[in-house]
Specification:
This protein is mainly alpha-helical. It contains four helices and two strands, in the order ββαααα. α2 runs parallel beside α4.
Length: 190
């Protein structure tokens, strides 16, 4: 159903239903990936850091050096997953108070489309820069495991792409379902 701006709702066309279904499928995939990333990296961080603390006090050598490097590589992915899931629920930085000052539904849609376009362009530029820095830092190696220093920048780049897709699908939802449906998750679902 498509809001008309007057409170009346019209049925969506076949193309509109297909666009909403496609946007929903993409968003569900991003949500699952973000939640899996949070879960796996969160559990790994907890186990690694707990083991590291225990081995520091229990082993005469002071623990395992590798356990000190791994959290540095995992933490950016944990944060990236959280950012992506939060963005889908509207839990990221937003300027929603501005919508209160915009009169009707049509103007709110245009304002949100403009905001989403700015966000997509910004994150696309940030993605490109993150990839450039990742390419530069790949020659840096961690002292014990020899892992490249680019992991954090890859997390930023992946997060930027996911945020671009989230805001594009949000614009599809706004265009077809109205401003009240701009987020794909509710805070209770996130």
């Amino acid at each position: 159903m498509e809001p008309t701006g007057t409170g009346e709702v019209l049925p969506l066309s076949r193309t509109g239903r297909a666009a909403i279904a496609a946007a929903g499928a993409v968003e569900r995939a991003i949500t699952m990936a973000g939640r899996l990333l949070i879960l796996v990296s969160g559990i790994a961080l907890t186990v690694i850091m707990t083991t590291n603390v225990l081995t520091r006090y229990l082993m005469p050598s002071g623990g395992f050096a590798a356990l000190q490097e791994l959290p540095e590589r995992l933490f950016p992915w944990f944060i990236a997953g959280g950012i992506v899931v939060a963005a889908q629920a509207g839990g990221h930085m937003a300027v929603d108070w501005l919508l209160e000052f915009v009169g009707n539904e049509r103007r709110r849609r245009w304002l949100l489309h403009l905001g989403n376009a700015i966000i997509v362009i910004s994150y696309a530029v940030l993605f490109q820069q993150a990839m450039l820095v990742a390419d530069i830092t790949k020659i840096e190696r961690s002292p014990v495991l020899g892992l490249p220093g680019s992991h954090g920048y890859w997390a930023i780049a992946a997060c930027c792409i996911a945020l671009c897709v989230i805001h594009i699908t949000s614009s599809v939802r706004i265009a077809l379902l109205g401003t009240s449906r701009r987020f794909s998750l509710d805070y209770r679902e996130a």
